[in-house]
Write a structure and sequence with these properties.
Radius of gyration of chain B: 18 Å
Number of strands of chain B: 0
Strand order of the largest sheet of chain A: 1-2
Number of helices of chain A: 12
Oligomer: heterodimer
Distance between the termini of chain A: 24 Å
Distance between the termini of chain B: 18 Å
Structural class of chain B: mainly alpha
Order of helices and strands of chain A: EEHHHHHHEEHHHHHH
Structural class of chain A: mainly alpha
Largest sheet of chain B: none
Largest interface: A-B, 36 and 35 residues
Chain lengths: 306, 80
């Protein structure tokens, strides 16, 4: 099939490439609960889209992928609607602050270096921590003769999670779907707010930081963290798409084409989570932030954008 | 076990083929005609375009979710 002209961004791209990219991003989204912006953004750029359109269009595409994957996860019982709605509030607030920080750095004139260093630090920290924790958990399970299967979940960080659950900061709420008897509302808002700042600061849905924080800080089981994160992303990424579209950064036609591949990928990814236990999903997650870090390092040292 | 895997792979390939045909028709008909009008709309009514963009992506994802779920159920004969 020949390249298709997209009049909003003025780009000429083969729609099959977009659908295939969407399929892989959808597969990742359904399995890990992330938007995949650290791969989709640079790939859209490589296909000839300007950076502003790559960022805005990717966000629009994330909305669609999250709808399909979250609906499938909901059917599998992996979505805590109450937690997702509370987190959406914190994420939107944090995203605004993150965007303001970017504006401040733009005025200071050193945005590229600062954002690159911060993103590399975040990506590496998340990966190193998760590889350490999930390996520790899997080793402990093997030693204890326990076999993780299906939705069974445990973490080596449980003592910290328990301590956080014991913090009595009014108002305390319960999240029966996630198996949390009582947790301070402020802790949930803080976690989503931090995720929102990273999202506004580095772009994309920031699922690579929110999903692990939901598991380790809030104590949400991995399968539920993946599904709830996707549900939360629908709300926050819709808001982000709207604000980016007003600034003229969204080519919705490209997002619609990508979505055709993402729909089937997200379904498969969500179904696949049934066959892996929490620590294994977290271990498979490790390379994703590292890919993001590699792309940023490449851009930083060569000056070329992928 | 091997027969099961072969059956699943076969179903998946049929799903992809049916889905591929639907998507090709969609590219040719809908996006071809929608493109120019959306392009004009983006230049003249940016706020309405922003709302429409969110609406379109949400609407399409709901329809596609329905289509892919329907295909999965139809070809596998059970709720996945």
């Amino acid at each position: 099939m020949i390249a298709m002209f997209f009049p909003i961004s003025g780009a000429e791209i083969n729609p099959i490439y977009l659908a295939v990219l969407g399929f892989f991003i959808g597969l990742m989204g359904g399995f890990f609960g992330v938007g995949g912006s650290f791969i989709a953004g640079p790939t859209l750029r490589a296909m000839g889209l300007d950076w502003n359109f790559a960022v805005g269009t990717d966000l629009a595409h994330i909305v669609g992928t999250s709808v399909v994957a979250a609906k499938r996860h909901r059917a599998l019982g992996n979505v805590d609607l109450r937690l997702g709605l509370i987190m959406a509030l914190g994420t939107i607030g944090g995203a605004e602050i993150g965007a303001q920080l970017i504006q401040m750095l733009k005025r200071a004139g050193n945005i590229n270096l600062v954002v690159s260093i911060i993103s590399i630090t975040i990506y590496f920290s998340v990966s190193v921590f998760m590889i350490w924790e999930s390996s520790l958990t899997l080793r402990a399970q093997r030693k204890g003769g326990r076999k993780s299967s299906g939705k069974s979940d445990e973490t080596s960080f449980q003592h910290v999670t328990n301590w956080i659950h014991r913090l009595e900061l009014w108002p305390m709420i319960s999240l029966p779907v996630s198996g949390i008897k009582a947790i301070s509302l402020w802790i949930i808002l803080l976690v989503s707010f931090v995720g929102g700042i990273v999202s506004g600061f580095l772009g994309g849905g920031a699922g690579y930081i929110r999903m692990p924080m939901m598991v380790y800080v809030l104590g949400v089981p991995t399968h539920l963290a993946v599904g709830t994160d996707l549900f939360e992303i629908i709300i926050s990424a819709s808001y982000g798409t709207f604000t980016h579209a007003i600034k003229g950064n969204v080519d919705v036609l490209i997002a619609l084409v990508m979505q055709t591949g993402a729909a089937i990928g997200a379904q498969i990814g969500a179904i696949l989570t049934q066959y892996f236990a929490g620590p294994k999903i977290r271990l498979f997650f490790v390379p994703l932030p590292l890919i993001g870090a590699a792309i940023v390092i490449y851009t930083l040292f060569t000056g070329h954008k992928l | 076990m091997k027969a099961d895997a072969r059956k699943t792979l076969f179903s998946f390939l049929i799903e992809l083929a049916v889905y591929g045909i639907l998507i090709a028709v969609y590219f040719l008909l809908v996006l071809h005609f929608l493109g120019p009008s959306l392009g004009d709309f983006e230049k003249t009514h940016i706020r309405l375009y922003a709302l429409l963009a969110v609406g379109l992506i949400l609407g399409q994802s709901i329809v596609l979710e329905f289509v892919t779920t329907f295909l999965l159920r139809l070809l596998r004969g059970r709720s996945e």
